[in-house]
Amino acid sequence: MPSYPPAPDRRSLLKLLAAAPAASALGGLAATAPAHAVPAQTARASGAVASGAVASGIVKSLPSEWFTVRGTNAEARFDSFADTGLLTPADRFFVRNHTSTPVLDASDWRLTLWGDGLHGRSPVHFTYGQLRDLPSVTRTALIECAGNGRSLYTSQQGEPVTGTSWTLGAVGAARWRGVRLSDVLRRAGIAHDAVALQPRGLDDPYVSGGVDYGRVRRPLPVAKAFDDVILAYEMNGEPLPYDHGHPVRLVVPSWVGIASIKWLGDIEVSARPLTSPWSTDWYRLFGPAHPSGGSDPITVQTIKSAYELPFGATLEADRVHRLTGRAWSAHAPVRSVEVSTDGGTHWRRARLLDTPRRDGWVRWTVPWRPHRTGPVTLLSRTTDAAGNTQPERAVHNTQGYLFGAVVRHPVTVA
Ligand code: MTE
After folding, report:
1. Which of 102, 130, 170, 363 has CA 20 to 30 A from 77's CA?
2. Where would I find the Moybdenum cofactor oxidoreductase dimerisation domain in this sequence (predicted)?
């Protein structure tokens, strides 16, 4: 059975378990709690896992040329994607953790499905080996945080928002291999009247402002689950890394990243609609432009493009620069990308370097020879095959989700 290197050996784990708070029981489902759940900090301190520039609770190394640490999260530097291909290597992939990465062992992990939406109504378990024995599927999909680009509401539109101040690097593309969630649901005996699922992670409960919100979980409609959701155990051809959900996570293509629950432990299957704080308090749109009491829980991500250049980069005058970037849309494949190198007065088409596909991004390039020295604003604007185009302004919401407007990218010509 594959295990992700550098897996802590059993002796280290026993030591770690003695030092670490045990993974708490899953509210009536203690049997599904992993025997080997070790918070990342403890694992790192013992030398059992790789060290590096650290964010609290993240296992992998976070070199500053690739990442900006934001609290418990690590944002990828978008400019650093310039030397990556269509897939984001796992060691360059952003990490969004509500708490910290649990170091789980595939050999004693199991998934439990339970609830009144199952025939027979008793819980059904799958071991890691049983999942690996089911027919596998492989697909490329982006994972993008709902709040990617959030800081631009403030820096570009002058509007206040709450939450992690992501710039544009809370997104990455990977090739995921796993099993269809629909196959697992059928095998577990999903009933005809089941309407909602609630996948839940095995990371520690999320506590904020003195309130314990429980483990990270968010309702997922049965219709989406049967469409294209997978239980992934591989990322870019390797077992899932600890920080990205080892041993098994959900991948919910085209939806906001919160739907793709990592370190999956159990899934409630329900004949009634379900809620959690991740569908009532967060991941909905609040503010004057939205229904009072908030929008429905957000689902599909938005449309974006970005230059693979640092904000504030200096470019030499009277030289041809090959500007590069990426464009993506959760609604449809990208159709075209236009760029402006004069603050939005003139626009021209960028050359697309990849065949546009749904749930992926395309790389684009455009030559630029600046003559005048001084500050310049670069812009890029994606249009997708469904006719969506990035607008000049994104519709504000208080938690800063779904920023899809054209980004004004400052550079200096010297
Ligand atoms: N799943 C669990 N169990 N715990 C989490 O904190 N974060 C979610 C989602 N799944 C999260 C989770 C959010 S908000 C995002 S954007 C994605 O995981 C990020 O996935 P990544 O860290 O692999 O990039």
Report:
1. 102
2. 320-402
